[in-house]
Design a protein that fits this description.
Length: 463
């Protein structure tokens, strides 16, 4: 629901603009208000989960997100919608930041944890892809209000199921890490940084400098504080450092592809909202097929780093194929091979990367590590989208000024962005090969563990 909400809005933006009277620049804040709150609070929310209990933070975030969705759906003015979207971002950050931490503590056995992370990866990818399809269907069949109101039954059901199915977990206590100054510094730095990125694609200016200064102040604070919000010891792990860096680069390349690929389908190929959503479904299907089980089995046999490198290589191949799409591209021959490569690559990469990023996290730091993983993904997506969209727009504008036809100018601009995205993924491959280390624990016989789990469940049912 939370990942879907980041993409479902895109298709409905023209209808929202016409109904609420947004200006062109003001309309961007329907997206930006959510991104700023979401990206800025992930790290703090993850640490709060460790301190006061991850289930408590998750439920609070879920309730706030659902209530904010109701406010979004009921909005009758631009100001009300922007404020409600900001609250959605706060709730989304609280719920998302602790999810991986809950998974690794609830499923300590390697086989169970691999399956759980695989399902998590599939749901995230499916939400991103289906959001485009759902946004088009709901906006065309009903109206834009329903892209938010559809969250209400899902949010209520998730809240009830969480209370019934997830065990209560005591946090380590606020006294173990209540670094108020550190929390203020990092939250302000991240929010200001995301704001600078979404408002200024180059990420420059005094706001960007202030964000960097606040971040450096946070690092100094964490090095000196008796009870830091983000213990710097977590970065002694090469896997934590390397996996988060790899994820930031990979998401930067892929997120830009989804956004610009959507524009290519719409403005060059003439697809409507429903066709675009259907066009991206192979990505979700491929990620789902590989994430739920198959990726974990490959990791158990060949190692997480090997599977990650294979996945990143396929993502690189998909982006390179996108750099060759023609003006009159056909879906089956020009788009589908690239989308399948991206889907298979994502299905292999996301679960293994999350496993590597969480591999050295202790039980007390699981929420923090989870928040860090989500923060790097969010920042990577914001940076990637801003940079790639800026480069694509600049290239297209130059070609139009030279008299090149609009479809050709747009396509050439998209090709440049896809090429830069491929370069980012190339750097990610180098980091994965040189910085990330194989998990040293002996690989479990994952097939045997799953068979034993199935046998135990059968015995329980017979009992």
């Amino acid at each position: 629901m939370i990942i879907l909400d980041q993409t479902i809005v895109n298709v409905a933006l023209p209808a929202i603009q016409a109904d609420l009277g947004f200006s062109q620049s003001g309309l961007a804040w329907v997206i930006n208000a959510y991104l700023i709150a979401f990206g800025g609070l992930l790290l703090l929310a993850g640490r709060l989960g460790d301190l006061v209990g991850r289930k408590r933070v998750f439920l609070t975030g879920l309730a706030l997100f659902t209530a904010a969705s109701l406010l979004c759906g009921a909005s009758q003015s631009a100001e009300m919608l922007i404020a409600a979207r900001f609250l959605q971002g706060v709730g989304g950050a609280m719920a998302t930041a602790v999810t991986l931490g809950m998974i690794v503590t609830m499923f300590p056995k390697p086989a169970e944890q691999a399956r759980a992370i695989g399902v998590f990866s599939f749901v995230a990818a499916a939400g991103a892809s289906i959001g485009l399809l759902a946004g088009g269907v709901l906006t065309q069949a009903l109206n834009w209000h329903w892209i938010f109101l559809v969250n209400l039954p899902i949010g209520v059901a998730a809240f009830v199921l969480t209370i019934r199915l997830i065990d209560n977990e005591r946090g380590i206590g606020l006294g173990k890490g209540a670094d108020v100054l550190g929390a203020i510094l990092i939250t302000a730095a991240l929010m200001l940084g995301v704001y600078t990125i979404v408002e200024s694609p180059a990420g420059s200016g005094w706001l960007g400098a202030l964000s960097i200064a606040l971040f450096l102040g946070f690092v100094v604070r964490q090095a000196r504080a008796r009870k830091p919000l983000l213990p710097l010891r977590i970065f002694r792990s090469r896997n934590v450092l390397g996996a988060n860096a790899v994820q930031m680069l990979m998401v930067a390349g892929m997120f830009g592809m989804f956004f610009l690929g959507t524009l290519y389908m719409e403005k060059v190929l003439g697809y409507d909202a429903l066709q675009i959503g259907l066009g991206f479904l192979p990505v979700a299907i491929a990620i789902g097929t590989l994430s739920v089980g198959f990726s974990a089995r490959l990791s158990a046999r060949f190692g997480e780093r090997t599977v990650l490198l294979a996945g990143l290589t396929l993502i690189l191949a998909g982006l390179l194929l996108f750099t060759q799409t023609p003006i009159d591209g056909r879906y089956l021959t020009d788009l589908l091979p690239a989308l399948v490569a991206l889907g298979v690559g994502g299905g292999l990469s996301f679960p293994t990367m999350m496993t590597l990023a969480m591999s050295d996290a202790t039980r007390d730091d699981a929420g923090l590590a989870s928040g860090l993983v989500n923060t790097t993904a969010q920042v990577g997506g914001a940076v990637g989208l801003a940079v790639l969209a800026s480069l694509s727009t600049a290239r297209t504008t130059d070609l139009l000024a030279e008299g090149v036809a609009a479809p050709a100018a747009l396509t050439d601009g998209f090709h440049l962005a896809f090429g830069v995205g491929a370069a980012l993924v190339t750097v990610a491959i180098i980091l994965a090969a040189t910085v990330v280390r194989p998990i040293t624990a002996p690989a479990p016989d994952i097939d045997a563990e799953w068979e034993q789990d199935d046998a135990n469940q059968s015995l329980a049912r017979i009992g």
